[in-house]
């Protein structure tokens, strides 16, 4: 593996300084405190400021409202965005449905939605998971029934993170319960201000908010349907692939970026804390065992940064879980004290990181699903579970 440095031209370095300055200006202590208190995963003022520069969708063309940037500059934006500590979840999920909207949406829907996604005024949450189906999307039960030119939708979604800040939900429904599971699904872009939609919060152990979305006799026009009736599995396939880290070569994303950034913030917090602790040879950072452990973590982070796609998804989550535990072991009991508690190490950063880490193995399809993707799509191994067949 080549760990040599990459030489950047002066224009790219100037752009990097511009990006870093932007996030330093907009990601304020007040913004971070708000996110720590409420865990919403989104800040509208920051998102709109990014939209003004085309940075919500930096690789989209300027005609679509993006910045038309090359992959390297888009990666610089992502790197600084994640590294700033700003909430990022809804900004990421919002860019998944447009993949399907471009392919399956009518020209009118594309013209109405895509520019507003790019400028930040439209956000889209994912209406996949239901209480009884977990990661098995083919098992969804939310029903959509045709009524003339309309559809009437009844059901329930959960873990629809960002719904409270979104204008639309990329909604997977069942339109024919009599056919095999994958063949009776239809996708809609549901306006969340439609009567009959109710959003209720779910507060998680990790300090983040997600949501239930209840749908009771929700009536929407057929214009909001994406793709053909009962062909919804084809519609969600491309966004699901992107969520799992499988994207076209011309598109770039730092698949493990958010979790690597969290690792780096925890390491930085530890270094700052350890500088103030007395060890046998000076500060705690002068201890050989501490230096060795930090070296292992940083080397693992660099190796993970070199991964892409599903492997990056797995490695970054596992690294964060491992790092959060190891740093708590190095710090000791005060690392377990939460933010605001007396004597909490680094203002509760280690405790918060330790709570946040386990859920990263579930977000966006679990790491077990990522392993299945690697086995089946890249290694050519047989499916871990057989496909359901019609009786």
UniProtKB/TrEMBL annotation:
<feature type="domain" description="Acyl-CoA dehydrogenase/oxidase N-terminal">
    <location>
        <begin position="11"/>
        <end position="120"/>
    </location>
</feature>
<comment type="similarity">
    <text>Belongs to the acyl-CoA dehydrogenase family.</text>
</comment>
<protein>
    <submittedName>
        <fullName>Acyl-CoA dehydrogenase</fullName>
    </submittedName>
</protein>
<dbReference type="Pfam" id="PF02770">
    <property type="entry name" value="Acyl-CoA_dh_M"/>
</dbReference>
<keyword id="KW-0560">Oxidoreductase</keyword>
<feature type="domain" description="Acyl-CoA dehydrogenase/oxidase C-terminal">
    <location>
        <begin position="312"/>
        <end position="378"/>
    </location>
</feature>
<dbReference type="Pfam" id="PF00441">
    <property type="entry name" value="Acyl-CoA_dh_1"/>
</dbReference>
<dbReference type="InterPro" id="IPR052161">
    <property type="entry name" value="Mycobact_Acyl-CoA_DH"/>
</dbReference>
<dbReference type="InterPro" id="IPR013786">
    <property type="entry name" value="AcylCoA_DH/ox_N"/>
</dbReference>
<dbReference type="GO" id="GO:0016627">
    <property type="term" value="F:oxidoreductase activity, acting on the CH-CH group of donors"/>
</dbReference>
<dbReference type="InterPro" id="IPR036250">
    <property type="entry name" value="AcylCo_DH-like_C"/>
</dbReference>
<dbReference type="InterPro" id="IPR009100">
    <property type="entry name" value="AcylCoA_DH/oxidase_NM_dom_sf"/>
</dbReference>
<dbReference type="InterPro" id="IPR006091">
    <property type="entry name" value="Acyl-CoA_Oxase/DH_mid-dom"/>
</dbReference>
<dbReference type="InterPro" id="IPR037069">
    <property type="entry name" value="AcylCoA_DH/ox_N_sf"/>
</dbReference>
<dbReference type="GO" id="GO:0005886">
    <property type="term" value="C:plasma membrane"/>
</dbReference>
<dbReference type="InterPro" id="IPR009075">
    <property type="entry name" value="AcylCo_DH/oxidase_C"/>
</dbReference>
<dbReference type="Pfam" id="PF02771">
    <property type="entry name" value="Acyl-CoA_dh_N"/>
</dbReference>
<dbReference type="InterPro" id="IPR046373">
    <property type="entry name" value="Acyl-CoA_Oxase/DH_mid-dom_sf"/>
</dbReference>
<keyword id="KW-0274">FAD</keyword>
<feature type="domain" description="Acyl-CoA oxidase/dehydrogenase middle">
    <location>
        <begin position="125"/>
        <end position="211"/>
    </location>
</feature>
<keyword id="KW-0285">Flavoprotein</keyword>
<dbReference type="GO" id="GO:0050660">
    <property type="term" value="F:flavin adenine dinucleotide binding"/>
</dbReference>
């Amino acid at each position: 593996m080549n760990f040599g440095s990459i030489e950047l031209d002066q224009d790219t370095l100037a752009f990097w300084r511009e990006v870093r300055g932007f996030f330093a200006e907009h990601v304020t202590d007040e913004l971070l405190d708000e996110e720590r208190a409420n865990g919403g995963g989104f800040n509208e003022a920051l998102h709109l400021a990014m939209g003004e520069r085309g940075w919500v969708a930096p690789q989209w063309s300027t005609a679509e409202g993006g910045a038309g940037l090359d992959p390297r500059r888009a990666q610089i934006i992502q790197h600084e965005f994640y590294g700033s500590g700003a909430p990022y979840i809804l900004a990421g999920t919002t860019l998944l449905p447009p993949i399907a909207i471009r392919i399956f949406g009518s020209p009118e829907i594309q013209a109405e939605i895509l520019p507003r996604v790019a400028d930040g005024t439209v956000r889209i949450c994912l209406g996949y998971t239901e209480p009884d189906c977990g990661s098995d999307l083919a098992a969804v039960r939310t029903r959509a029934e045709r009524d003339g030119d309309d559809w009437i939708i009844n059901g329930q979604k959960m873990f629809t993170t960002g719904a409270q800040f979104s204008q639309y939900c990329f909604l997977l429904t069942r339109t024919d319960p009599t056919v095999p599971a994958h063949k009776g699904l239809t996708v809609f872009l549901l306006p969340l201000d439609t009567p009959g939609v109710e959003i209720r919060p779910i507060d998680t152990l990790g300090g983040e908010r997600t949501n239930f979305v209840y749908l009771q006799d929700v009536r929407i026009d057929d214009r909001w349907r994406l793709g053909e009736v009962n062909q919804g599995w084809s519609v969600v396939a491309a966004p699901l692939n992107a969520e799992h880290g499988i994207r076209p070569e011309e598109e770039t994303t730092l698949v493990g970026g958010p979790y690597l950034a969290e690792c780096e913030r925890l390491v930085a917090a530890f270094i700052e804390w350890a500088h103030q602790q007395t060890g046998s040879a000076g500060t705690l950072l002068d201890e050989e065992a501490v230096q060795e452990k930090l070296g292992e973590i940083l080397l693992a982070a660099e190796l993970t940064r070199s991964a892409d796609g599903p492997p990056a998804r797995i490695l970054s989550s596992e690294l964060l879980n491992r790092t959060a535990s190891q740093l708590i072991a190095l710090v000791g009991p005060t690392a377990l004290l939460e933010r605001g508690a007396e004597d909490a190490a680094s203002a509760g950063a280690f405790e918060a990181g330790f709570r946040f880490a386990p859920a990263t193995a579930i977000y966006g399809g679990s790491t077990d699903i990522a392993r299945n993707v690697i086995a089946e799509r890249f290694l050519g191994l047989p499916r871990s579970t057989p496909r359901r067949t019609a009786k």
